[in-house]
Amino acid sequence: MKNFSTIVVLFLIFSLLSCDHGISPLPEQPEVSGFEGTIYFVSPWPDSIKRTYLVVFKNPLLQPSDFVITNLKYLSNEIPFGVQSYRFSSLDSAIIPVSPGPFEPGEYAYVAVAHQTTHELSLARKDWFVSGIYYSNNDTTKPGVLVIQENKMTSNVNIRVDFNHLPTQPPGE
Q: Taxonomically, which superkingdom (predicted)?
């Protein structure tokens, strides 16, 4: 009987120590604004590529002067050379913005995968080549507008890259 009493006491102590809030719900996670998706590389990577990034511009790239740092709202970390697919999220660290976090709600006119053949990172338009563009609603006639809503993640921002068939390049030098 003494063993039974000891087991009951140990069970009660264990139960009290292991339960902090019973079956109460988990604390609510703050909602964040942003986007996520996958880049699919459907052709072999050319050896001439030195770096590849995901870029997001607020306004369309209609003339060379639109390719400016003030219009560039997102520049991902470098995408590893030779991958067949690459998952991304605006919540991941990036070069622009400098700190990860919520993405400013609004509409973004140009989302693309771009690569460079230069050895050093350059922000000159002449050094960037668009490899793939985000299209919305399967309309491949014009770049899709990325809509970021307040406190929501926009999913399925997917981009197809075919180095053998590059999309129309934005205006530039």
A: Bacteria
3-state SS track over the chain: CHHHHHHHHHHHHHHHHHCCCCCCCCCCCCCCCEEEEEEEECCCCCCCCCEEEEEEECCCCCCHHHCCCCCEEEEECCCCCCCCEEEEECCCCEEECCCCCCCCCEEECEEEEEEECCCCCCCCHHHCEEEEECCCCCCCCCCCCEEECCCCEECCCCEEECCCCCCCCCCCC
Residue 44, exposed/middle/buried by CB under 10 A (0-12, 13-18, 19+)? exposed
Condensed to tens digits (0 to 9), the pLDDT of residues 40-49 reads 999 999 999 9
* 133 vs 166: CA distance, rounded Å: 9
**pLDDT average, residue stretch 86-94:** 93
Determine how β-strand 34-41 pairs with β-strand 153-154.
parallel
In whole angstroms, what separates CA 88 from the centre of its chain? 4
**DSSP bridge pairs for 96:** 75
* Cα 95 from Cα 99, distance rounded (Å): 8
Place of tokens 């299209």: 135
Scan for tokens 């986007």, then name that residue.
Answer: 35
